[in-house]
Amino acid sequence: MVHSSFYLSAAMCLALAAPVAAQTAGGAPNLSGGKVKVGVLTDIAGPTAMANGKGSVIAAEMAAEDFGTGLNVEVISADHQGKPDVGSQIAARWFDVEGVDAIADMQGSPIGFAVQNMAAQKSKIMLLSGSTSSDFNGKACSPLTVQWTVDTYNLAKGAAKSVIEAGGTKWYFLTVDQAYGNALTRDTSEQVKLNGGQVVGNSVFPPNTSDFASFLLTASNAGANVIAIAASSGDTVTAMKQADEFGLSSTAKIVPLQSVLTDVYAVGQKIAHDAYEVSPFYWDRTPETRAWAERFFAKAKIMPTGFHAGVYSSVAHYLKAVKATGTDDAPTVMKQMEKEHVHDFFAADGYIRADRKMIHDMYLLRVKKPGENKGAWDLYNLIQTLPGESVNRPLSESLCPLVKK
Predict the structure, then answer these.
(1) Both ends of the chain: CA-CA distance in Å?
(2) DSSP 228-289
(3) What is the pLDDT confidence band of residue 366, given thresholds at 50, 70 and 90?
(4) pTM of the model
(5) Which of 27, 52, 142, 360 could form a disulfide with 107 if both were Cys (CB 3.0 to 4.6 A apart)?
């Protein structure tokens, strides 16, 4: 049986909501508590709620429905409110009281880092979709954590090369002062220099900033012809809109380094057109991506982002490994997850490397001009497929202690 219960934030975001059940058959041996329990820790009501949020919960539920046959699976969820201490308290309760075996999505690298050591100590699996700092597969890698969807290194490598080739050589960064924002600027700056570009400045701002005027003016005065936004959905949307209001789109390329489909939808093609995006997923790329996206849309009423697709893929692969091994013992399941390649709409032949990065192709996308789209969510042209090994940090350069040199 697959159960899905939705946790809403109240007090410390730990209040239980009523379960919604979906039926499958049977059970499996050697499951702690007689079931497999997956928690989706995400941003339900905050600035990245569209990019992750309820959509991540729905994606995990879909994976449980599709791959939970023969297992007793329960999906629960909680809103971490963008606060690492709240996320840690939720995870502690899930592990110690609720019997959660794996946590998926983990939107926000600060929350991911806050929970990771606890998960390792308690032998629990983490399936990162929304935690994007490349340190998760570098110096902060952990045996039971897999960074599934995207990281700041492959975002940086794809964006830097394509934008410089298009003439964007002088880069100014707008960096949210959080782990992934600083990692994204660090990784992209390295790639800009490697590709012959120049970094002319960087403004660091707090999360949920409403006024980017001074930062944008500084970028313009620095002679930048690229303004790169190293932030998540809420700040990215605000910065892109204000850059357009100040007329900077005519003098500089605006590059949202971690934008997703729902960000472009919110900004609109009039402002976002021709912006480049490096993404792990686009719903309209293949018949398989379209078929899954249409199922998702019927439930979520939005088209899926790469984070949503990554949650589904990671939870599905995890459940397959549980079924194959007949246990939810984390080290045993992780060995099986490493052994089996990932073959689904998200990754044609993905695999988990020693540094705990799931390697899959990435895609260089460009936002369509107004009038080029055939529907509200038809927002991108696929420019190039970026093979997985070519766009991820080589293992020879990895700082992950799990990698044997």
Answers:
(1) 44
(2) EEES-HHHHHHHHHHHHHTTGGGTSEEEETT--HHHHHHH-HHHHTT-EEEES--TTSSHHH
(3) very high
(4) 0.89
(5) 52
Least confidently predicted of 2-6, 38-42, 94-98, 102-106: 2-6
Q: Residue 101 and residue 43: Cα distance in Å, rounded? A: 20
Q: Cα(96)–Cα(341) distance, rounded to whole angstroms?
A: 31
In degrees rounded to 5, what are phi and psi of residue 239?
-65, -40
pLDDT tens-digit map of 85-97: 999 999 999 999 9
Q: Which residues, in sequence order, are CB contacts of 353 under 8 Å at separation 6+?
A: 137, 359, 395
Cα–Cα dist 304/291, whole Å = 12
Residue in 100, 98, 128, 99 with CA at minimum distance from that of residue 114: 128
Q: How far is CA 45 from the centre of its chain?
A: 17
Strands (E), 80-197: 102-105, 125-128, 145-147, 170-176
pLDDT digits (tens, 9 = 90+) for 43-69: 999 988 999 999 999 999 999 999 988
Do residues 75 and 38 make contact, with C-beta atoms less than 8 angstroms apart?
yes
Does residue 105 contact residue 77 with C-beta atoms inside 8 Å?
A: no
Q: List beta partners, residue 352.
A: 358
Give tens-digit pLDDT for 117-128: 999 999 999 999
- Quick one: DSSP state of residue 369? P
Contact 74, 101 (CB under 8 A): no
| Longest distance between any two alpha carbons in the chain, whole Å | 65
Instruction: Name the token pair of 393.
Output: 């940090």
Residue 328's closest CA among 33, 18, 114, 7?
Answer: 33
CA 93 to chain centre: 24
